[in-house]
Design a protein that fits this description.
Strand order of the largest sheet of chain B: 1-13-12-11-14-10
Oligomer: heterodimer
Number of helices of chain B: 11
Number of strands of chain A: 1
Strand content of chain A: under 5%
CATH architecture of the largest domain in chain A: Orthogonal Bundle
Helix content of chain B: 10-25%
Radius of gyration of chain B: 22 Å
Radius of gyration of chain A: 23 Å
Largest interface: A-B, 62 and 74 residues
Order of helices and strands of chain A: HHEHHHHHHHHHHHHHHH
Largest sheet of chain A: none
Structural class of chain A: mainly alpha
Helix content of chain A: 55-70%
Distance between the termini of chain B: 41 Å
Largest sheet of chain B: 6 strands, mixed
Number of strands of chain B: 20
Shape of chain A: globular
Chain lengths: ~375, ~450
């Protein structure tokens, strides 16, 4: 450790202003602060500071995604061999899943961090940790059979147009991970649609439709059971299938206070309420599907726990968060049932509400302002 | 019994180094008045180096508010004028003659005086700057008539001095001071105490004031919290405020005619070998407090609390409004993988460190920033330690973009930089919020004047 510190201290002058590698300063700083928490001390304001920093915050969120990631790895293998009709053990499934997912993770981090480093460098900023989470979320929400070159383009688009053009982490309007997914589905519909992408290299004769796909075409005869969908033994993106693993992640996020319980709770409530409304209406078989099924199908749970709660793109006021979450839940189920073109509504619902979140906050703040003005009037009249 | 105002949102940071409740005399040779302590003051000198002074001798006045003069806290000789960058006046150093003589401003029966006489006497003697106003936290404008005056009888900050001890045995002067304050407002004088931190008769038996009781963690002692609960500020309102110990100084001036700047000061902090209270004067040099009383040699000396205090040198001077010196270790070290290891024994408000398992542990915290500066990312965090009906992050953003109307509408008049100290401490983005708020308030003050 000391030797490493000495080495860094020796190299540091080359990267500082005037050094020959100054154009790599952000990269050096990123590496250095990855290894060692900086020796910077408080200069203004409070003299003591909390031990938490952005790296710690993001690490906790990544840890929360790990249960879903590992289960997804296993399930990718399990679904693959299931479609081939082969029986395999745990490690074979894991091994196959790892072979599929690890390249996706590498492409996601490689392309995304590369762009992040580049932008940090030209802006003269420190490297921002935000992409560490985005880079983990993207592999979890894309189909396991996604071609890597398409993924690379989607990641590049998401980081540049989803985030950097707005000023980087903390300034973006919509969730970059979802931008990547939306880009995939709208720019490459031929490669992304149908039943072929949700199971990695499946046998052609095997159906491979996700529950949402089945529901959309009215195929309710051999529908997946609730417990299969809750535990995650269904085709789908790696991270989204197991509601149980996602809930473990939710517990980690809520226990550490990293995500808003208001948003999570209200997204689930919104979805349930919309489902119940459809049950009551009951115009077709999809509407009659039990409302709680919606919560475990597709990406609903994953979106509610990891996507809707992104602090930057969600509503930032406590009151606004209730509205924001509730509408995401409702709209997601609404799109699922009504939109014939696209089986999953969660991504579009969250992206839509990301755009409206600042408006919701605006009205919450306006009401706070009005309250203050009212108090002023009461005083001046009396 | 008065009503109790409960402050629920907030945080008590538990630190090592609370002062032992004994008072000893501090034998200080040098004293200083530091113009930067007075927000917005542009000093114009009235005396030269080498002049001898008494307590109450004018030193300088404010270029922008000529009626406010600043006087010497003790008697002796004006020995040094310390300037900083751009010749900004930093310190006026006075060497004591050990006699503590004051100019006689004449004693008087309070009840017979009217406001103009009271104000004139306070201005002339130099005790007026003890009285500050909200909004902006600048020295009160003598021409204003405040809608109420708030006297703070406790400090809820970490390691804060015990105000009961500061005013011990000074009932009469304190009461006289309160009677003086009552002359200055047509509204009420509020004396704000804490349910657990105060038990002194001096406060509970005070007359001519309304005694209010607060309960709960820091920032329950911040005057903004008191004002927001008792008599909120609207646009155009002015409220004055003052510390309990300074009321005694005013009381003494009117009962004896002397400017007595005596102040009991707590020496606190994890690096102090023997933390205790000292009887000193305004602007006292701290050398004799800290010599042979400090562990280690890489420390930060703070006049005030760890949340809002000013950094000073180890031979620096007590700030004008401060009743506390804190010494904590500097944190200029590297920490290998500090952000990823479990971090046992490290303090954090967040539950990402195991610290939340031992809520009563006292910590020895240093000045390390524990991370790099980032944009606002985490939301809903600041509200947990911010007991106002104001959206802290949104207000910060309004200040950063200098949107005057929005700042005003969102309630900037009701707060001060110190109210954001806790937000600043727990912020994972390491943003210097107090500085931003101070700049915002200064911008407002310039726009409105």
């Amino acid at each position: 450790m000391k030797a490493l510190r000495k080495f860094l201290d020796k190299q540091k002058p080359h990267f500082e202003k005037g050094g020959k590698f100054h154009w790599l300063w952000s990269t050096f700083e990123g590496m250095e602060s990855f290894l060692f928490v900086s020796n910077a001390v408080t200069t203004k304001g409070a003299h003591i500071r909390d031990s938490i920093d952005m790296k710690r915050t993001m690490t906790v969120v990544i840890m929360a995604t790990l249960p879903a990631l590992f289960f997804g790895m296993w399930n990718v293998g399990y679904q693959h061999f299931l479609s081939l009709g082969e029986t395999t053990d745990f490690w074979q499934n894991m091994g196959y899943g790892a072979l599929k997912l690890i390249p996706i993770i590498i492409v996601s981090y490689g392309v995304g961090l590369g762009i992040e480093f580049y932008f940090a460098q030209i802006n003269g900023h420190e490297i921002n940790e935000g992409y560490l989470v985005t880079g983990m979320l993207i592999p979890l929400i894309v189909p396991p059979n996604v071609p890597l070159w398409i993924l690379a383009i989607a990641v590049a688009f998401a980081v540049v147009f989803g985030k950097e053009v707005f000023g980087g982490t903390g300034m973006n309007v919509v969730n970059p991970a979802l931008v990547a997914r939306a880009f995939l589905f709208f720019a490459y519909p031929g490669d992304m649609s149908g039943d072929k992408v949700w199971i990695a290299e499946k046998a052609d004769s095997y159906s491979g439709a996700t529950p949402l796909g089945d529901a959309l075409v009215g195929n309710f005869d051999h529908f997946h059971t609730f417990s299969d969908m809750f535990f995650g033994f269904i085709p789908g993106s790696a991270g989204e299938t197991s509601t149980l693993m996602i809930l473990i992640g939710a517990v980690i996020l809520l226990a550490t206070g990293m995500a808003s319980w208001r948003i999570m709770f209200s997204v689930f409530t919104g979805g349930l309420v919309m489902g119940l409304l459809f049950n009551w209406w009951g115009a077709n078989e999809y509407m009659e599907l039990p409302a709680y099924y919606h919560l475990v199908m597709g990406g609903f749970a994953f979106g509610a726990v990891f996507m809707a709660t992104d602090p930057v793109t969600s509503s930032q006021t406590a009151k606004g968060q209730w509205t924001y979450g509730f509408l995401i839940g409702m709209i997601a189920v609404l799109i699922r049932v009504f939109n014939p073109a696209y089986p999953e509504g969660m991504m579009l619902a969250i992206l839509l509400m990301n755009v409206f979140a600042p408006l919701i906050d605006h009205y919450v703040i306006e009401s706070n302002i009005k309250k203050r003005l009212k108090r002023l009037k009461v005083v001046t009249n009396s | 019994m008065s009503t109790i105002y409960f402050v629920k949102k907030g945080l008590d940071i538990k630190l090592i180094g609370e002062a032992e409740k004994t008072i000893v005399d501090l034998d200080a040779k040098r004293f200083a008045i530091k113009p930067p302590d007075f927000i917005g003051c542009f000093p114009k000198m009235l005396i030269k180096e080498g002049d001898s002074v008494k307590a109450g001798t004018p030193l300088f006045f404010d270029k922008y508010r000529e009626n406010i003069i600043y006087t010497s806290p003790i008697s002796g000789k004006f020995v040094e004028l310390k300037r900083g960058a751009k010749r900004k006046i930093l310190e006026l150093i006075i060497e004591s003659d050990g006699k503590f003589e004051s100019i006689d401003f004449g004693s008087a029966e309070i009840s017979s005086l009217d406001k103009t006489v009271v104000v004139e006497k306070m201005l002339k003697s130099g005790v007026w700057p003890l009285l500050r106003q909200r909004p902006y936290s600048v020295i009160a404008n003598p021409d204003d008539s405040p809608k109420s005056i708030f006297v703070t009888a406790f400090d809820s900050s970490p390691l804060a001095p015990d105000f009961d001890l500061l005013v011990q045995g000074r009932e009469e002067e304190f009461q006289t001071g309160l009677d003086v304050l009552a002359k200055l407002t047509t509204g009420k004088v509020h004396l704000n105490t804490h349910k657990e931190l105060n038990s002194s008769q001096v406060f509970s038996s005070a007359r001519n004031v309304q005694v209010n009781t607060f309960a709960g963690p820091h920032p329950s002692g911040n005057v903004s919290v008191h004002i927001s609960r008792i008599d909120p500020i609207n646009k155009g309102d002015v409220v004055w405020y003052i510390n309990a110990q300074d009321v005694i100084t005013i009381g003494t001036l009117f009962s004896t005619g002397k400017y007595d700047s005596t102040r009991v000061v707590a020496l606190t902090g994890s690096e102090v070998t023997n933390p205790k209270y000292y009887r000193a004067h305004i602007g006292a040099n701290i050398t004799n407090m800290v010599v042979n009383n400090i562990n280690g040699d890489n420390n930060r000396y703070i006049s005030g609390t760890v949340l809002t205090g000013t950094k000073i040198e180890s031979d620096g001077f007590l700030g004008f409004y401060d009743a506390q010196i804190t010494v904590i270790p500097e944190g200029d070290y590297y920490e290998f993988f500090g952000w990823v290891l479990p971090g046992f024994g490290k303090w954090s408000f967040s539950k990402t460190f195991p610290a939340f398992l031992s809520p009563n542990k006292k910590y020895r915290l240093d000045t390390n920033l524990h991370g790099g500066k980032r944009a606002f990312v985490v939301t809903g965090l600041y509200e947990k330690v911010f007991p106002f009906d104001i959206y802290p992050m949104q207000l910060m953003k309004a200040i950063i973009v200098e949107d005057i109307d929005l700042m005003e509408n969102m309630g900037i008049y009701e707060i001060d930089a110190e109210d954001f100290a806790l937000c600043e401490v727990i912020d994972p983005s390491k943003i210097n919020m107090q500085e931003i708020v101070r700049n915002g308030l200064e911008l407002m003050r310039k726009e409105m004047s």
